[in-house]
Amino acid sequence: GHHSCAIQSGSAAVVCWGYNSHGQSTPPSSVDGTSGSATAIAAGLLHSCAIQSGSAAAICWGSDSEGQSTPPASVNGTSGSATSIAAGGYHSCAIQSGSGAVVCWGRDALGQSTPPPSVNGTSGSATAIAAGAYHTCAIRSGTGAVVCWGYDVSGQSTPPDSVDGTSGSATAIVAGWSHSCAVRSGTSAVVCWGSNAYGE
After folding, report:
1. Integer distance in angstroms from the first to the last C-alpha of the chain?
2. CB within 8 A of 135, min separation 6: which ones?
3. What is the C-alpha R_g of the chain?
4. What tens digit of pLDDT does each residue of 120-158 get?
5. Are 45 and 133 in contact (CB under 8 A)?
6. Quick one: which of 24, 26, 82, 96 has the fewest CB in 10 Å?
7. Contact, 117 vs 124, CB < 8 A?
């Protein structure tokens, strides 16, 4: 949205700045260095999320109008924890520790919070996750194939053959408002797809 967050060197405290209309730039004591710190961070539209050091619990703050700041028990430290975290427009996702399953919560009107069997632990899991405005992408464990779901009006959820496992795979993934990018395995080439109205 209009804010940024970082993990401070040394203390591992979460520090955020910018727009704070919904408290998205005010991390809680559990990760701001007061009573806890973080190992990973993600900034969404009006919310932010982090993985707490030690417990590996997914913790979110800011707007919760769609439940995007309320991680489920499977990753919030109650019955499971997380290894990776992503924050989108009105949804959030994490990769569950141990199982590698993608778990999402928040708005799901366009399917952005419903990961497919190939990464949700049913028939496969993930090693990396990225959340855009209304879509989500992950890198599938084992194959390295990019899998996306959710809104696809600009093709942001349709990765090309070069990274979807057809003729290539990926080692890193990121999702923007209506586009996505990945680093292709072997070549280190950046491959992007989706909206290109501004050369993104």
Report:
1. 17
2. 88, 110, 112, 148, 149, 150, 151, 152, 156, 157, 175, 178, 180
3. 16
4. 999 999 999 999 999 999 999 999 999 999 999 999 999
5. yes
6. 26
7. yes
